[in-house]
Design brief:
The complex is a heterodimer. By secondary structure, chain A is of the alpha+beta class. Chain A has 3 helices and 5 strands; from the N terminus they run ββββαααβ. Chain A has a single domain, classed as Outer Surface Protein A, domain 3 (Alpha-Beta Complex). Chain A has a 3-stranded antiparallel β-sheet with strand order 2-3-4, covered by helices on one side. A two-stranded antiparallel ribbon of chain A has the order 1-5. In chain A, a hairpin with a 5-residue loop joins strand 3 and strand 4. In chain A, helix 1 crosses helix 2. The longest helix of chain A has 13 residues. The N and C termini of chain A lie far apart (26 Å). Chain B is an alpha/beta fold. Chain B has a 9-stranded mixed β-sheet with strand order 6-5-4-3-2-1-7-8-9. In chain B, strand 5, helix 7 and strand 6 form a beta-alpha-beta unit. Classes of the chains: A alpha+beta, B alpha/beta.
Chain lengths: 99, 405
């Protein structure tokens, strides 16, 4: 089923998760992401980014995920850009705050 | 000489990562049968007759199971004409049920109203209708009499059934290169999407390549057309050799053979790419121990294709980084060295290389040929072959063969 959810601009202070219809395939450089709904492919270009995407759902927001995964301060703007791209292609989606 | 184990760079451009290969292909083509109702003059796989060794239903299911394990999320299914396999619809459902989406190419022969409705109801399936002319005249000369009508009837049925994202797949030739806007209009008429790909001298394509491959001027027009319309048109990233005109075209500008692309043929043989059905590019067979995964990850051929390639004669060309020497199959089947220019090099080096070939040289040909040997209804007339050979000599000319002396 194609998700009817629209594209939401990325805000790192909000809770996010890997989209439910997305699968990650490990690759030597990171991972390939495939969206079963819109059939788009994306590439996660570092292994740390893969860990970030996979653990987004376990943290209150994207910023705290960066901290938990040990993303160096200097690289955070690049990670915000990478997640914003993934949000645009619906590979990650906003998470309803858990009850 | 000591073998150097290639060292994959960390970070950097994706295209550089792809050169070293992936753990599983991104774009896997699977030809289900060599059988085909048509006899297109440029068939890349020399299809026509079924091969008795083709994978059984159970073996095909085992391949799908393996693709699911390897997380190959979709396959491009073709042939031959895949829908003439009696188990085609079963295999389609089986693949989709195992998280392997299917995009299949067809000439439309089996896409009646009922099948069109079935497809419209199915998720994760894409249909691609082959058409090589925007008019029946241009199309049928290459694909055979009646094939334009068959394809457009299928498009009508799919549109009527509400099937989304249907593709019309065009191989660009000298005859149809001037019809790109017409193709776009035709495709729009059915609410479909246009896909154009490069014509290679593979299979029977080698027989007609000199006559059908686009001229240098047509390549320039095609490049300009792609820059203007590229966002709404699919290309399978097959025109990357045109990037040497200046601006890089959207998509992957790299030969993906054995790196991100491969072909499983109807008998289970794995080749580096769909345009390279030749023993030199045969990496293994899915029936052997370890199956497809072992072939993809461990075959010597693929390891070789994933090690850094030299540009050979192209190394000193300012455009090498844009086109990366072009298409391996196009070079191979025109008898050019693999580390030199593409025969259609837009800087003109290909023509020079073709002219400099040894006069004695016979370009390599595949020994794998399933072309029809008997008459085929509607056989294309491009080569001047009559659709059915005359039964008796005098059917052609009442005086033929008579010695009137």
């Amino acid at each position: 089923m194609v998700s009817s959810a629209g594209v939401v601009a990325f805000d790192p202070s909000l809770p996010w998760q890997k989209a439910r219809s997305v699968a990650l395939r490990p690759e030597p450089f990171g991972a390939l992401a495939y969206h079963f709904g819109n059939r788009k492919l994306s590439f996660l270009k570092s292994k740390l980014l893969v860990v970030v995407v996979e653990t987004l759902a376990e943290h209150p927001n994207a910023e705290s995920t960066f901290t938990a995964c040990g993303v160096p301060e200097a690289q955070r703007p690049a990670y915000v850009r990478a997640l914003a791209d993934l949000a645009r292609s619906q590979m990650i989606e906003p998470r309803e705050s858990s009850a | 000489m000591t073998a150097v184990i290639p060292q994959r760079p960390v970070g950097g451009r994706l295209v550089d990562q792809f050169e070293y290969g992936l753990d599983a292909p991104i774009c896997l083509t699977w030809e289900l049968t060599y059988a085909c109702n048509l006899a297109c003059v440029h068939c890349l796989s020399s299809s026509g007759r079924r091969d008795p060794r083709e994978l059984s239903t159970a073996e095909a299911e085992a391949v799908i199971d393996e693709l699911q394990r390897m997380q190959v999320f979709y396959v491009n299914v073709g042939g031959g004409e895949p829908t003439v396999r009696p188990d085609f619809w079963h295999l389609l459902d089986y693949a989709i049920g195992h998280d392997v989406g299917v995009k299949f190419s067809t000439n439309g022969i089996r896409l009646d109203k009922t099948r069109a409705q079935q497809l419209a109801r199915t998720d994760y399936v894409d249909v691609q209708i082959s058409l090589d002319g925007a008019t029946a005249e241009v199309n049928d000369a290459v694909r055979g009499a009646g094939s334009f009508a068959t394809a457009t009837r299928a498009l009508e049925n799919l549109a009527e059934a509400g099937m989304k994202d249907v593709k019309v797949s065009v191989v660009v030739t000298r005859e149809n290169a001037g019809q790109l806007d017409d193709f776009k209009a035709l495709t729009d008429r059915y609410g479909a999407q246009l896909r154009i790909t490069r014509f290679r001298p593979s299979g029977r394509g080698a027989d007609v390549w000199d006559r059908l491959h686009p001229t240098q001027a047509q390549q320039r027009d095609l490049y300009d057309w792609l820059l203007a319309n590229g966002d709404n048109v699919l290309t399978g990233d097959s025109f990357f050799h045109l990037s040497a005109f200046g601006e890089a075209l959207p998509g992957l500008n790299l030969c993906g053979a054995g790196r991100v692309v491969c072909l499983i043929d109807p008998v289970g043989d794995v080749y580096a790419c769909p345009f390279a059905i030749h023993e030199n590019f045969l990496a293994g067979n899915v029936r052997s121990e370890g199956g497809f995964q072992r072939v993809w990850r461990s075959s010597e051929l693929f390891a070789d294709l994933r090690s850094p390639q030299t540009g050979g004669a192209c190394t000193n060309c300012a455009h090498y980084d844009a086109c990366r020497g072009g298409c391996m199959a196009a070079k191979f089947f025109t008898g050019l060295p693999l580390d030199g220019p593409d025969p259609e090099c837009v800087q003109g080096y290909g023509e020079t290389a073709l002219a400099a070939r040894d006069r004695e040289l016979v370009p390599p040909r595949s020994s794998i040929d399933h072309s029809h040997t008997g008459p085929v209804r509607g056989r294309p007339t491009l080569l001047g072959i009559p659709s059915i050979p005359p039964a008796k000599i005098c059917d052609e000319n009442p005086l033929a063969g008579l010695d009137l002396r």
